[in-house]
Design goal:
Blueprint (H helix, E strand, L loop, with lengths): L1 H12 L1 E2 L2 E2 L4 H11 L4 H13 L5 E3 H7 L7 H13 L3 E6 L2 E6 L1 H14 L11 E6 L6 H13 L3 E4 L2 E4 L4 H10 L6 E6 L9 H9 L2 H23 L6 H19 L16 H26 L12 H4 L7
Antiparallel strand pairs: 1-2, 3-5, 4-5, 6-8, 6-9, 7-8
Helix pairs in contact: 2-10, 2-11, 3-5, 3-11, 10-11, 10-12, 11-12
Length: 327
Amino acid sequence: MKIALRLDQYADQLLLGGRTISNAIEPLVQGLLSDLDLKARSLLVSVWGDSVAPHGGTVWLGSLIDLVACFGLNERAVRTSVFRLKNEKMLSSSQQGRKSYYTLTGSGQRRFEEATKRIYKHTADPWDGSWTLLFTERRKMDDAVKKQLFDELHWLGYGDLGSGILAHPRGNAEDVNDLTQDLEITGLVAVMKAASLPSTEETPSHILIRKGWNLEEIESGYLQFSDHFKPVLNALQSGATYSDETAFMLRTLMVHDYRRALLKDPMLPDSLLPETWGGGDARQIFRDIYQMIWQAAERYLLEKLQSEKGDLPELSKEFMMRFGGLT
């Protein structure tokens, strides 16, 4: 009995980098909470896109407040942030008795779908060498509309070439048309497809890359992400255990930090990127951790969140296809 007891104590005290395996993840997550400079609105966008949208996109506000309390967000901060998202027309609300429910608007749904495609993409799309060019009559736009247009186009990856001209080697005309319709400026933005250009060094393609994007600044976000989450991956691969709540916090923080880097990434073809591009390593870390913890995170949010009909709907098929298929 004494020998068995000592073996159990040894297993409980097995060290991983100075921490016991049973609680190696929690200190890392608490460190991330301090390091990532979280803002309530931005964090809620990450929660909505990663956790709420795959379950129908509608939740009771009270359950959302309960879900994100683990991040240190109080009720006032959540209500204020949700109200802002409603004013930005990303969310709409409905009332049932004393309960308020929030759901994605049509434009909000499109925005989240586009973000989801980019965040959880499995493989890069092929590139035929052609470019999409946008010509905007910015002087005829209201300042607020102009800012929103350019913010959205930058999110879609377009580089600003100056004089109201933007470009992208993989631009999607339908996304631009949807955006201009939402902003009611369809007659102020012209879309043109340019002939394919060579992608060797010092060709027009590389000149456009240098003019439209600061690749070093974009890559720095991915390098910071890797610094933040590589220790977490090492701990998980070494057998560290964690609670469902910690898995949810880790998944959300990871999506939040990766999305922040991705916001600046135009998703250029590999042939236009440096050979040592840090985005690849960051993506591998992101995918590996996500595959290991997504189920535990789901258990926690299903326990906390409620929709208009009570329990959340089942996960969408699109969720299960993240990274080419979750296991």
